[in-house]
Amino acid sequence: xxxxxxxxxxxxxxxxxxxxxxxxxxxxxxxxxxxxxxxxxxxxxxxxxxxxxxxxxxxxxxxxxxxxxxxxxxxxxxxxxxxxxxxxxxxxxxxxxxxxxxxxxxxxxxxxxxxxxxxxxxxxxxxxxxxxxxxxxxxxxxxxxxxxxxxxxxxxxxxxxxxxxxxxxxxxxxxxxxxxxxxxxxxxxxxxxxxxxxxxxxxxxxxxxxxxxxxxxxxxxxxxxxxxxxxxxxxxxxxxxxxxxxxxxxxxxxxxxxxxxxxxxxxxxxxxxxxxxxxxxxxxxxxxxxxxxxxxxxxxxxxxxxxxxxxxxxxxxxxxxxxxxxxxxxxxxxxxxxxxxxxxxxxxxxxxxxxxxxxxxxxxxxxxxxxxxxxxxxxxxxxxxxxxxx
Length: 390
Description:
390 residues; alpha/beta; Aspartate Aminotransferase, domain 1; Aspartate Aminotransferase, domain 2; 2 domains; four-stranded antiparallel sheet; 15 strands
């Protein structure tokens, strides 16, 4: 028996597991210290009340014989797909409910979309980047090349004359840098993909944080995207679903490669490997896209953006940073030439602040650190005060 040899090409520990282990060790040695956790991008909650009520009603419905539901559609219930389609329409993007596939969070599909593609396809991935994109393809034995995202290009690389790729991962607003593509930047990538036959895998997990009307919240707001782009999104950050798990992926009907519709292939894959998201969760997700649910969710998003502004204000006094606007992340340059893990240790041991070392997001992340605004206002204010002490 042989195990997958591609594990040898990966880091021994997943980035956030390594951060958690270091944090736990410090806390065990200093149980009296109050740690401020600004590392992993988990929300402070709670769920929007409209979501809670919808999930409770759906659970009661499931408790009656006449309301019980077993396995649901692999692609998700029609009521949720229609609600998501209406949400896109409000953004100015036309997405048919039949093009939407419900999942248990964007991370799952980000890792699983590679099932559609031959492992000889070249993946082009920005660096620094959310580690799942890289790890999933390395596990599959697929070749990976990197796009340099640097301060010089605003951490928003564009295709050039020599760019080659079969699959391109884009995340906007970006995790970890917080940078967001404008229409011109996304148009450049859409034109590249349509010209070369590449497929764009576009992660819009943080679209709800975009407040600048000049920045697209969906790639389908860009002409030509429906013939080259798959879009992933999630309710984790919009509606505090990190512990509930629900998201969706869009496969436009016009997206075909090798003579086949990729959405049809994805449905076949899901029927083999996925039994869908539970009925109560999908009813909760539907409520999140309703008028009341969205109003409640947007209040939470506004709260986190205010947190980001507080952190950015404190950091801006002693270091360069990106993000903090249109994003819940602040991507800061480590002061005094410190390395990412060096500065992580300094903040943990001297300030009792947990952040995420930029080096864990790729080679170009060395010398940077990511902080998240997904915390309580009390913690954020205290973190800003501690950072301000120097």
